[in-house]
Amino acid sequence: MWGMYQEILSPHMGDQMMISVIVVIILGGLGSIRGCFYGAVLVGLVNLYVGFLEPRLAAVALFTLAQNYLQDLLRWVGTYTEGIPVLSELTGPDRWLLWFGLLFVLSVYFFPTGIVGQLRLWATRRRQGQADSALKPGAVASAPESGQSHL
Question: Under a CB-based contact definition with an 8 Å cutoff, are residues 26 and 117 in contact?
């Protein structure tokens, strides 16, 4: 059915869909159903928004956005690395897929619970830090004024 929609059959037909699935998993995390739900909602909203702006790009919205932004970023970086032989080759706009893959690998390495899971972890640590600072000996609690009792 996808081939009928695309009007062409090729070995690379599922690339856009797989990239969307990988983005959902990276956003939500491997062990979090709630996070994957949030990732899917975010990917769906991006696809709908791009589909509203340009209907022909709705199916490949994330892929197209990543390609355009990474190519622009690599062109900008390439202006600063023109004189360096190896770096100028690696930062060329045609190497955007290499950097896209590297971003995926780094995000899985640094955020094993996904971006949503990492945000949840940071929020929990922040709440615990605020609670711990209130319990420290130097912290001033709401004590009754002198001469007043709790009763």
Answer: no
84: which 2 tokens?
């360096």
C-alpha to C-alpha distance for 29 and 111, rounded to whole angstroms? 8
Nearest alpha-carbon partner for 115 in 47, 49, 24, 44: 24
Q: How far apart are CA 92 and CA 107, in angstroms?
A: 22
Gap between the Cα atoms of 141 and 6, Å rounded: 66
Give CA–CA dist 122/39, Å, rounded. Answer: 18
Number of other residues whose CB lies within 10 A of the CB of residue 18: 10
CA 53 to chain centre: 22
Cβ neighbors of 96 (< 8 A, separation 6 or more) are 66, 67, 70, 71, 74
pLDDT digits (tens, 9 = 90+) for 40-68: 888 888 878 877 777 776 666 667 777 77
What is the pTM (predicted TM-score) of this model?
A: 0.55
Distances (CA, A) of 144 to 95, 131, 133, 141, 147: 67, 21, 20, 9, 8
16 neighbors 100 (Cβ within 8 angstroms): no
Separation between Cα atoms, residue 119 and residue 115, nearest integer Å: 6
